[in-house]
């Protein structure tokens, strides 16, 4: 059993809004009669003792109970009030309830002085003296009367002598009573959790202080708390308006009572006129509008589901007076949009608030007991922030044992709670038939799928899919996140429950197997999604699907792979049949992994087919020529090893994607592919027998072309200039055809390991290029020109890319001239980036074993300590350049999970304290491991905190130390642990960069570059001398490279350039293989441009 819970503070019962305490002889036929009538017109429930003349000696229990159960007591102090012991006893009880029950007390001094009441003097005191004389034997009672009179008179109230007309006095009392009632409207609610933030946001939209009329919508799914939030707002601000009305359950009441009844009730409350005559649903009498325009009112219309309701009840803005507000709650965004100025969407509770709400319902505490913590978390996860679900489940689980909690949670997996489902199904019931079908398709099959693709499939089913999905989003049944269809788990659960009742959509393997092996329910089945990895073998007759005329969606798939010998689905063929017969012509989606037949059925006309996916199938033939599905948009036959050719594609002009990768027997692609003008992606990777392709130049929409691992493909076909992604790696390509146009939109280009490739065109015109991979092109004789990195590095400030990295791994055969280009440009870029003061990062890796001599501080080993000159870090200081020479001597196997990491930890010491800063960079997943010593050189923009600290302490800094470390990290697919391989740091260096030297350094480097480029190419001796003297520019001097570098096997003949963005939205790593242009000795070294 659950632990005992503490009692909660139960609010006292209230039967009346107002209790009137008065002396009948003084006020019954004047003030009291008018006050009571005014309260009645305001629909304020008032207790008035009409039989006071028949009282006995003591105040009746009924009267005492009425005082206790009234929210407000109004005391009318008149001249003879204190002469009545019954009035005085009422007063004592009223003041007692004010203290013990927090009741409101409002005194009215009717033709008496408040001071006389307080001190019991004057004519009021004389009347009280008469009673005192009668009860001089009960002085305790008399003292209670006197104390009560004094306390009541000290309260804020109304003095009739301050009002010219009695009606003005009554109006003031009524207004204050209404304010008090609305202020206590929500005092009984003790479980309002997580709504404060919603209220604050909606109050901002309401702009209470402005004089314009504003309509605000509160929108959200069923059970999310819209009404609760509206009620809380009503209780908080309604006293700021001259008239108010909260009209609840508009959807239900309008269907039962009619809009005219609701409209009459609403405007009667707003104007305080019970006899208001309204006979038309979409209009108001002129007299009513004129009265309404003179009042500042607030109206709440709860659960509106039809624009006609909103039109009838709220009309338009001009009906209401300045400063009025209309708040509408509903599930349908379209309904709200037709009238409101702003819409606020209510999201679910966060985890902490969800746990608190559940705990208050299940345990009457703010947090669950420790032994119920795990079970409570499970319930919270199930409810996913929906207050309705948390309240319902919490109430069910109140005072239940842990075993009962577990039983309830297990039950919910198969049988959703009916109270929750009843509320959620309201939104479903209001959909039209097409919207219901789309909703059930998404709930059963397409949650989490790409919106555009599912719209295509549903359009093939004959639905207006785009409109239908829009309506589902407006009704909070579906959401769109990153172009994917999503829905709340409880809503999906509701959809699955409905679909299961209908039997039109099947996803449970047991239900599907039973249906396939029998004739039960086949005629009404519209969709089948079977995970074959969750079932055993299923025997299919070749005519199994012929009895499913309504079938629109068919998908057999695996969530995990298994050996082909364990195929879940196979066919019992007839003697002459080699295919499935009778597939429904309504099919829009046919996805069958490991399809066992050699062809599709001959009587399958496919006029509605949008997506045909048969990866790893036995298919040899799709359709006969000129019989292709006209609506087909996506075709996937990947790894269908028996497929030799595609059929004629003349009819499939809507194709956008063709996936044929791994079709190892494929010989050709039909020339009719040129008619597929909408084709966006063509993947022919690993089609080993493919020898040629037709011209693709007419495919103007083609953006992705992948021909990787096609060893027999010697020539590239004509391709359109709009291609963005071109992958040719490990293909048999020998020459780059001159007919290929300038690829202006190309962003990714790979010819890695094309060992027969001898030349490439200049890439200077490929302005959009970001990623290049020329790795392993061992026969490439002529190097392409690469687009320049702009000389003015300041232009990078407009780029989203913060990190720029150039990796020349294992480029041991690079000539001295290429090395000179690399290091000279690296030094230059570091200085320019530092000068620009952008938050950029620059790094270079190159085979070598020496630290460039331009580094001010150098050391053997992995650490260096330097003594700092006075004021080293002044305002001209820009940052640090770092260098490390690493020794790679261990055997490693590169994987996608490998990660190279190099860092420098710094420590700066002064007379007071020290500070550390990790000046690191990551080289990410390298395809190549260095096989010899490599120089890593990098610059990183200092953090503002570090720079500020250095400048502030520059005059007292004495010493700085730097420790370098490098390692490979390998992440296991099966274990969360990370394996690390330390890399030895042989040398290191640090260089301080100052602003004052930048311009001079730039000019000097240009002059040095000019000297190099103007050197006579025949004067080799002069070149060598020059190179050996320029160790302040390059990592190792001149021809010394060739002598010092080991002759390791060359894994990468060219240079890998990488760029990473710390703030890129998609987190994509940008890669390229690169060699500086050697075709011209008169240009500055050309680096790849990333913008």
TrEMBL record:
| Biological-process GO terms, alphabetical | defense response; signal transduction
Which spans of this chain does the record mark as coiled coil? none
Return the EC number.
3.2.2.6
Keyword annotations: Hydrolase, Leucine-rich repeat, NAD, Plant defense, Repeat
Root EC class: hydrolase
Where does the record place the TIR domain? 14-181
List the SUPFAM superfamilies hit by this protein, alphabetically. L domain-like (SSF52058), P-loop containing nucleoside triphosphate hydrolases (SSF52540), Toll/Interleukin receptor TIR domain (SSF52200), Winged helix' DNA-binding domain (SSF46785)
User: What's the protein name?
Assistant: ADP-ribosyl cyclase/cyclic ADP-ribose hydrolase
Q: Which PROSITE patterns does the entry mention?
A: TIR
Give me the reactions it catalyses: NAD(+) + H2O = ADP-D-ribose + nicotinamide + H(+)
In the record, what terms sit under GO molecular function?
A: ADP binding; NAD+ nucleosidase activity, cyclic ADP-ribose generating
Please verify whether the record's keywords include Lyase: no
């Amino acid at each position: 059993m659950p632990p005992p819970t503490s009692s909660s503070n139960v609010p006292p019962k209230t039967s009346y809004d107002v209790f009137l305490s008065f002396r009948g002889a003084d006020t019954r036929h004047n003030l009291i009669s008018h006050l009571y009538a005014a309260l009645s017109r305001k629909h304020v429930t008032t207790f008035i003792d009409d039989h006071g003349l028949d009282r006995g000696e003591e105040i009746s229990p009924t009267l005492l109970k009425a005082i206790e159960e009234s929210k407000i007591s109004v005391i009318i102090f008149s001249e003879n009030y204190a002469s009545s012991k019954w009035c005085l006893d009422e007063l004592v009880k009223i003041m007692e309830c004010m203290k013990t029950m927090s009741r409101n007390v409002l005194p009215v001094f009717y033709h008496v002085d408040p001071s006389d009441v307080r001190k019991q003097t004057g004519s009021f005191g004389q009347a009280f003296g008469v009673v005192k004389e009668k009860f001089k034997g009960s002085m305790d009672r008399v003292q209670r009367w006197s104390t009560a009179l004094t306390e009541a008179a000290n309260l804020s109230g109304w003095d009739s002598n301050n009002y010219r007309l009695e009606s003005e006095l009554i109006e003031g009392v009524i207004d204050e009573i209404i304010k008090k009632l609305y202020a206590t409207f929500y005092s009984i609610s003790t479980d309002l959790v997580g709504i404060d933030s919603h209220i604050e946001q909606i109050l901002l939209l309401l702009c209470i202080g402005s004089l314009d009329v504003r309509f605000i919508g509160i929108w959200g799914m069923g059970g999310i708390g819209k009404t609760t939030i509206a009620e809380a707002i009503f209780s908080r601000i309604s006293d700021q308006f001259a008239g108010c009305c909260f009209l609840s359950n508009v959807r239900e009441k309008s269907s039962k009572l009619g809009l005219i009844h609701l409209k009459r009730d609403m405007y009667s409350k707003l104007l305080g006129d019970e006899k208001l005559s309204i006979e038309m649903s979409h209009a108001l009498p002129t007299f009513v509008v004129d009265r309404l325009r003179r009042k500042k009112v607030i109206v709440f219309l709860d659960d509106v589901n039809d624009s006609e309701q909103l039109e009838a009840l709220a009309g338009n803005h001009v009906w209401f007076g300045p400063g009025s507000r209309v708040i509408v709650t509903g599930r349908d965004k379209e309904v709200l949009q037709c009238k409101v100025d702003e819409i606020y969407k209510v999201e679910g509770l966060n985890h902490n608030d969800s746990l608190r709400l559940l705990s208050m319902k299940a345990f009457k505490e703010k947090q669950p007991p420790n032994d119920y913590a795990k079970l409570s978390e499970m319930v919270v996860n199930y409810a996913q922030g929906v207050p309705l679900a948390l309240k319902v489940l919490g109430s069910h689980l109140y005072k239940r044992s842990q075993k009962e909690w577990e039983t309830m949670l297990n039950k919910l997996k198969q049988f959703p709670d009916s109270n929750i489902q009843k509320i959620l199904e309201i939104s479903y019931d209001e959909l039209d038939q097409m919207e219901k079908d789309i909703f059930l398709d998404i709930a059963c099959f397409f949650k989490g799928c790409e919106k555009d693709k599912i719209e295509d499939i549903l359009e093939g089913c004959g639905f207006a899919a785009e409109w239908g999905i829009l309506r589902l989003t407006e009704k909070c049944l579906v959401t769109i996140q990153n172009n994917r269809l999503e829905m709340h788990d409880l809503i999906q659960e509701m959809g699955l429950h409905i679909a299961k009742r209908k039997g039109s959509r099947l996803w449970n393997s047991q239900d599907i197997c039973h249906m396939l092996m029998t004739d039960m329910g086949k005629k009404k089945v519209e969709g089948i999604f079977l995970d074959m990895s969750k079932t055993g073998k299923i025997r299919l007759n070749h005519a199994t699907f012929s009895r499913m005329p309504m079938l629109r969606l068919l998908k057999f798939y695996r969530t995990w792979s298994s050996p082909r010998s364990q195929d879940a689905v196979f066919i019992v063929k007839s003697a002459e049949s080699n295919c499935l017969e009778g597939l429904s012509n309504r099919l829009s989606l046919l996805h069958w992994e490991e399809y066992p037949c050699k062809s599709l059925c001959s009587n399958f006309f496919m006029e509605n087919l949008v997506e045909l996916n048969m990866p790893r199938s036995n298919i040899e033939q799709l359709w006969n020529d000129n019989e292709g599905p006209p609506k087909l948009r996506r075709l996937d036959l990947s790894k269908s090893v028996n497929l030799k050719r595609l059929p004629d594609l003349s009819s499939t002009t809507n194709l956008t994607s063709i996936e044929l990768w791994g079709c190892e027997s494929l010989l050709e692609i039909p020339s009719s592919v040129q008619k597929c003008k909408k084709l966006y992606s063509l993947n022919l990777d690993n089609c080993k027998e493919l020898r040629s392709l037709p011209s693709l130049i007419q495919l103007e929409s083609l953006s992705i072309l992948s021909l990787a691992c096609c060893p027999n493909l010697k020539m590239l076909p004509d391709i359109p200039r709009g291609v963005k992604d071109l992958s040719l790696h490990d293909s048999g390509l020998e020459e780059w055809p001159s007919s290929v146009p300038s690829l202006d939109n190309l962003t990714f280009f790979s010819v890695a390991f094309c060992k027969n490739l001898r030349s490439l065109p200049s890439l200077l015109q490929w302005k959009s290029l970001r990623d290049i991979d020329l790795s392993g092109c061992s026969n490439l004789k002529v190097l392409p020109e690469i687009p320049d990195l702009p000389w003015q590095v300041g232009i990078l400030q407009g780029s989203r890319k913060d990190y720029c990295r150039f990796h020349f791994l294992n480029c041991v055969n690079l000539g001295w001239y290429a090395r000179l280009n690399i290091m000279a440009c690296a030094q230059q870029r570091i200085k320019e980036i530092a000068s620009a003061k952008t938050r950029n990062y620059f790094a270079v890796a190159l085979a070598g074993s020496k630290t460039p001599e331009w580094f001010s501080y150098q050391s053997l080993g992995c650490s260096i300590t330097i003594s700092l000159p006075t004021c080293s870090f002044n305002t001209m200081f820009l940052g640090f350049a770092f260098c490390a020479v690493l020794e790679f001597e261990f055997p490693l196997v590169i994987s996608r999970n490998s990660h190279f990491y190099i860092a420098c930890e710094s420590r700066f010491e002064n007379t007071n304290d020290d500070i550390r800063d990790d000046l690191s960079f990551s080289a990410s997943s390298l395809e190549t491991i260095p096989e010899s010593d490599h120089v890593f050189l990098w610059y990183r923009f200092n953090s503002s905190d570090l720079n500020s600290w250095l400048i502030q302490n520059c005059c007292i800094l004495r010493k700085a130390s730097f420790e370098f470390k490098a390692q490979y990290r390998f992440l296991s697919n099966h274990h969360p642990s990370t394996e690390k391989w330390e890399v030895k740091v042989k040398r290191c260096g640090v260089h301080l960069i100052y602003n004052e030297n930048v311009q001079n350094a730039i000019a000097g480097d240009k002059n040095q570059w000019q000297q190099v480029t103007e050197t006579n190419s025949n004067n080799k001796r002069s070149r060598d001398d020059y190179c050996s003297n320029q160790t302040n520019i390059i990592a190792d001097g001149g021809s010394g490279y060739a002598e010092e570098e080991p002759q390791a096997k060359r894994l990468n003949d060219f240079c890998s350039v990488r760029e990473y963005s710390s703030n890129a939205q998609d987190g994509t790593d940008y890669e390229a293989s690169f060699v500086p242009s050697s075709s011209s000795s008169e240009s500055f070294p050309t680096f790849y441009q990333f913008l």
